[in-house]
Write a structure and sequence with these properties.
Elements: E1 9-14, E2 35-36, E3 40-41, H1 43-52, E4 57-61, H2 67-73, E5 87-91, H3 106-112, H4 114-120, E6 124-129, E7 132-134, H5 138-148, E8 152-157, E9 167-172, E10 175-181, E11 191-199, H6 200-213, H7 224-231, E12 234-238, E13 243-245, H8 249-261, E14 285-286, E15 291-293, E16 296-297, E17 302-303, E18 306-308, E19 311-312, E20 317-318, E21 323-325, E22 328-329, E23 334-335, E24 340-342, E25 344-346, E26 351-352, E27 356-357, E28 364-366, E29 372-374
Length: about 375
């Protein structure tokens, strides 16, 4: 009796988007490089899920400000992806052959890598964005895919605050019967979690067919997923736990509220930790009259003011008499004496010299120059 062969899975992490919905937070960095919880970067989440799932062939598709991400990737070492065979491969935009230029969307990004995928010849292609906070064993997705004999398995969730901002999925008995990308009137509350597992042969054949026909191939909902729905079996794998899109200022801020309240994933779970190359081993300094309540402090932070219900990044300095409340401070922020920061996200390196007062449902953003902007 022979042992069944495990399928070869190639993972593509789409990390090239501009992240315009995050405003000034992505003017100087790629969205996947955005700090999370004062100790990690957003890309750490998907890379950790892949690492713990035993998927060791991982390609990072870059485009916007790649230098802000490359230093953090550290050749894949923190996620055990620095290997002689397989491991982490960074794919920047290129020219000189098929697929050259800048991608116009997620599906277009796949089409531009089609030749390289074919040369690699995996059995399955797992495509995930780097915009979300969640825990998922991708082996479970593979099991669903193989068990149903699907051409495409979409990871789905009902956790989205506003389904119209996502790919909305219609499902009957686990089979996907409809998909609409960011519709004005969602047909259901089930949305794509931006994780797609494709049969490689079907994916490449579909891309070739669509390109040859001149079909629009930008985002998933333009022609790729609709074509697969019309001609192949597409199924869902429902994500069982927490999921949040961090692609907007409101979503980014709420994700930190969730982390503080214990409603999110556990970054330090011994069984499934979120791994990172970010260093934060410096001690935190608290000096009287410092007051810290229900907050997270990054390594090297110095607090002489008050912090409540907030996340303070690495190397921040909060001077006497200041108050930081329901806010997220990225690395190296300085809050001057007596200044109040409330319901805000403050970009890295900003020096806050005047009050920053947002609202619980209208988060204020402070850019690196200390200018105030509304979400």
């Amino acid at each position: 009796m022979t042992t069944p062969r495990h399928p070869r899975v190639l993972a593509l992490v789409l990390a090239g988007g501009r992240g315009s919905r995050l405003g000034p937070l992505t003017e100087h960095r790629a969205k996947p490089a955005l700090p999370v919880a004062g100790s990690h970067r957003l890309v750490d989440v998907v890379l950790s899920n892949l690492s713990h799932s035993g998927i060791s062939d991982v390609w990072i598709v870059e485009q916007y400000l790649p230098h802000s991400l490359n230093d953090h990737l550290a050749n894949g070492r923190p996620w055990d992806l620095d290997r002689t065979r397989g491991g982490l491969l960074v794919l920047p935009p290129f020219e000189g052959t098929d697929g050259e230029g800048f991608a116009e969307g997620n599906a277009d990004a796949l089409a531009r890598q089609a030749e390289l995928i074919a040369d690699h010849s995996p059995d399955l292609v797992l495509v995930a964005s780097a915009d979300h906070l969640y825990t998922l064993d991708f082996r479970d997705v593979v099991d669903t895919h193989l068990g149903r004999g699907a051409a495409l398995t979409m990871v789905t969730t009902t956790q989205a605050d506003d389904p119209s901002r996502h790919g909305v999925v219609e499902v009957e008995d686990g089979r996907v019967t409809g998909f609409a990308y960011k519709p004005e009137e969602p047909a259901s509350d089930v949305v794509s979690a931006e994780v797609f597992l494709y049969d490689t042969a079907v994916l490449l054949e579909t891309i070739e067919t669509l390109v040859s026909s001149g079909a629009e191939l930008a985002d998933y909902g333009d022609s790729l997923v609709p074509h697969l729905l019309a001609h192949h079996l597409v199924v869902e794998h429902r994500l069982p736990g927490y999921w949040r899109d961090l692609g907007t200022v409101a979503g980014y801020h709420q994700a930190h509220r969730d982390l503080l309240d214990g409603r999110s994933i556990d970054l330090a779970d011994e069984r499934w930790p979120v791994l990172t190359s970010a260093t934060g081993s410096q001690p935190v300094r608290l000096e009287e009259p410092a007051e810290v309540r229900h907050s997270l402090l990054g390594g090297g932070a110095e607090v002489r003011g008050r912090v409540r219900d907030s996340v303070v990044g690495r190397g921040c300095r909060l001077e006497p008499g200041c108050l930081v409340e329901d806010s997220v401070l990225l690395d190296g922020v300085v809050v001057r004496p007596g200044v109040t920061v409330r319901h805000a996200v403050v970009d890295a390196g900003a020096v806050v010299e005047q009050d920053c007062l947002g609202e619980p449902d209208d988060i204020l953003v402070v850019d690196r120059e200390g200018r105030h902007r509304r979400d």
